[in-house]
Amino acid sequence: MEKKEPILPVDDEARLLSKKLIRTARSGALATNGAEDGMPFSSLVSVGTDLDGTPVILTSQLSVHTRLLAADPRCSLLLSAIGKGDPLAHPRLTLLAEAERLEPGSEKAQAVRGRYLRQHPKAALYVDFPDFAFWRLNVAWGSLNGGFGRAYRMAREDLLIDLSAFPDFADFEAGAVEHMNEDHAEAVALYATRLCGGKEGAWRLTGIDPEGMQMALGDELLRLTFDKPLSGPGELRSLLVQLAQEARSKPAASA
Question: Distance between CA atoms of 220 and 203, rounded to whole angstroms?
Answer without folding.
Answer: 9
